[in-house]
């Protein structure tokens, strides 16, 4: 499985990787030659723990972007395979074709049948081409709308998992009216009669995220981001250079803490030290627990109240306070 492979280090993690390497080398050498290096190993382990707390306790917004893009981070299907049962994927938009970047179907969470939707990325070149790097075409959003209407008809709650840099911006996508497809989804999601929970598990870029993001509760993993545009896209517009992406990340205020302070998300789901890719089991278990908590609350509300609170939630976004 992917989580069992050695974890690739990010640029800012290289000093930590060097310490880990020294500890491993000492252990191997001590085991072979019986050098009795336990004290030195213990000292290095303490140094490594302190260094980890220093690095991960003071992450910049751009470093969090790097973590959330780590190729070994758990994706939608990983969450479902571990945290749900009776998965049944449905395909096609009944108009053009199938989109493998945005998938959906039925699943069971603690004996509660739900409809799930979400972006799925790939882990290698072949799978990334199949999944289009998590960037959905219009047919993906029309498929999502078909499944949401199905959920509404049978009174099944909807759980959406957001993880995309944005909807696919290519010519074919524009020819098939991607903006219209996303706009229709946003409109229709406001009037669903069932609970809707959205979880940003990775990247939450632009309309590609919002096309399945109009929910009663919006949760976000600690290192994930939710933004009107990707940092690189913002840098290209404002500075005419994608190299200014770190500065754009700061200016956009797209980190989970900023989003919570601004009222754009309802809860931050903590990640293990170093990011979700370092401990899939803890990340997925914690995320599913929070979904169950919010689903239990929302299932108690009548349909009219669900629609009312969804409208009120989004109308409150962008409030300006004047002195």
UniProtKB/TrEMBL annotation:
Protein's cellular compartments: Cytoplasm
Molecular functions (GO terms): acetyl-CoA carboxylase activity; ATP binding; carboxyl- or carbamoyltransferase activity
Keywords: ATP-binding, Cytoplasm, Fatty acid biosynthesis, Fatty acid metabolism, Ligase, Lipid biosynthesis, Lipid metabolism, Nucleotide-binding, Transferase
GO biological process, one term: fatty acid biosynthetic process
Substrates-to-products reaction catalysed: N(6)-carboxybiotinyl-L-lysyl-[protein] + acetyl-CoA = N(6)-biotinyl-L-lysyl-[protein] + malonyl-CoA
Enzyme class: transferase
Pathway terms, separated by semicolons: Lipid metabolism; malonyl-CoA biosynthesis; malonyl-CoA from acetyl-CoA: step 1/1
RNA-binding found in the keyword field: no
Superkingdom of the source species: Bacteria
CC terms in the record's Gene Ontology section: acetyl-CoA carboxylase complex
Function text: Component of the acetyl coenzyme A carboxylase (ACC) complex. First, biotin carboxylase catalyzes the carboxylation of biotin on its carrier protein (BCCP) and then the CO(2) group is transferred by the carboxyltransferase to acetyl-CoA to form malonyl-CoA.
Summary of subunit composition and partner proteins: Acetyl-CoA carboxylase is a heterohexamer composed of biotin carboxyl carrier protein (AccB), biotin carboxylase (AccC) and two subunits each of ACCase subunit alpha (AccA) and ACCase subunit beta (AccD).
Name this polypeptide is given: Acetyl-coenzyme A carboxylase carboxyl transferase subunit alpha
Organism field: Verrucomicrobia subdivision 6 bacterium BACL9 MAG-120507-bin52
């Amino acid at each position: 499985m992917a989580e069992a492979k050695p974890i690739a280090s990010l640029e800012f993690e290289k000093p930590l990787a060097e310490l880990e390497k020294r500890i491993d080398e000492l252990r191997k050498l001590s085991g072979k030659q019986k050098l009795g290096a336990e004290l030195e190993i213990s000292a290095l382990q303490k140094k490594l723990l302190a260094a980890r707390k220093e690095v991960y306790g003071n992450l910049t917004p751009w470093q969090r972007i790097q973590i959330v893009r780590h190729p070994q981070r758990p994706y939608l299907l990983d969450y479902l395979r571990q945290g749900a049962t009776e998965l049944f994927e449905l395909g096609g938009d009944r108009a053009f074709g199938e989109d493998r970047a945005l998938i959906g179907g039925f699943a069971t969470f603690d004996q509660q049948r739900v409809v799930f939707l979400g972006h799925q990325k790939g882990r290698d070149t072949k799978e990334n081409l199949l999944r289009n790097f998590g960037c959905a075409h219009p047919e993906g959003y029309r498929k999502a709308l078909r499944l949401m209407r199905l959920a509404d008809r049978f009174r099944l709650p909807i759980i959406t998992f957001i993880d995309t840099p944005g909807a696919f911006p290519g010519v074919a996508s524009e020819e098939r009216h991607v903006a219209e497809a996303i706009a229709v989804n946003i409109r229709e999601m406001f009037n669903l009669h069932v609970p809707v929970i959205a979880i940003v598990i990775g990247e939450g870029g632009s309309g590609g995220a919002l096309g399945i993001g109009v929910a009663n509760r919006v949760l976000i993993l600690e290192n994930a981001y939710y933004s009107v545009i990707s940092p690189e896209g913002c840098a290209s517009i404002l500075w005419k250079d994608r190299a200014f992406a770190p500065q754009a990340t700061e200016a956009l205020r797209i980190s989970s803490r900023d989003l919570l302070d601004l009222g754009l998300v309802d809860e931050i789901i903590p990640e293990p030290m170093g990011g979700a890719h370092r401990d899939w089991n803890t990340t997925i278990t914690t995320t599913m627990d929070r979904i169950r908590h919010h689903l239990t609350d929302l299932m108690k509300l009548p349909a009219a109240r669900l629609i009312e609170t969804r409208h009120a939630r989004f109308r409150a976004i962008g409030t300006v306070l004047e002195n």
